[in-house]
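Incident log entry.

Two folding requests arrived from the same account within the same minute. Monitoring flagged them as a possible duplicate submission, but the sequences differ. Recording both here for audit purposes.

Request one:
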Amino acid sequence: MATGDISSRTSTFAGAPQSVTGARLAADAFLAALARTRPPAEADHWDDILLVVSELAANAVQYAPGDFTLRMRRTFDGVHVTLHDSSTALPAPRPFRPGTGEGGVGWHLIHALCDQVSVVPEADGKDVHAFLPW
């Protein structure tokens, strides 16, 4: 990424398990470029965004076959994360049962860390929008 003002970044991933790492690295590179001109208001904001991206990517890999696209955009007071995947099924919270290995915490974490979360169904899947402070 070029230095200077950065407003958005879009990356597409194959939807394989290693794509979660790729999405997290792409998000980290976007945040590093953003921080050069506009550092986060609190240090935790960076980690929160990386965690949300990781959870969204992991959900896409687990529940939506094929590629997914991650778009990150700077907003006036934060970062807008959009993840588009191929599944038309809307995400829903599941009970979290520690010790079972069944997951269930990701969607709850996303909602806890974000200022706003919305899901927009599309003909070829859905967009999950997450707004986080920066």
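Request two (distinct sequence, not a duplicate):
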Amino acid sequence: MKERTYSYRKWPSFHGENVIECLSHSPTVLYIRWDIARPRIRMVASYLQADSALIKKGIRLYDVTGRCFDGASVHSSRDIIVDQEASSWYIPDVVPGHTYIVDLGLFHGERFCPILRSEPAATPRSQPSAWSRMRGGCDQAAAGKQVATT
């Protein structure tokens, strides 16, 4: 059996790099991780002109499957408040075979101020595609055999 190897982008070796990454954990779960400098958070918080106790750190999840994302062209979006000290978060209940983009930002009431945006991440399908099922799937043993014709 061939051993699987996974390749992730190099993660910053120090804090304050201002980076976010959205990864598919399973067909229905995304894993988000980030590193953001405190000064950047304070700058955005000051823009909100609100009591810091009322400002919450959060994630806005966009379903951008088959779309050229411009911030508005989404199938749906979901807001998630995260722990203030968190630097990663699992997002359950996403749709298999869809593509997502995540913004990390600050919420004050109904207002959201994004700070970082991830690259798109696609969740794997939970079943083989219809095309694969029509062909009967990929039978590795049969794929290596030649079919005799008369």
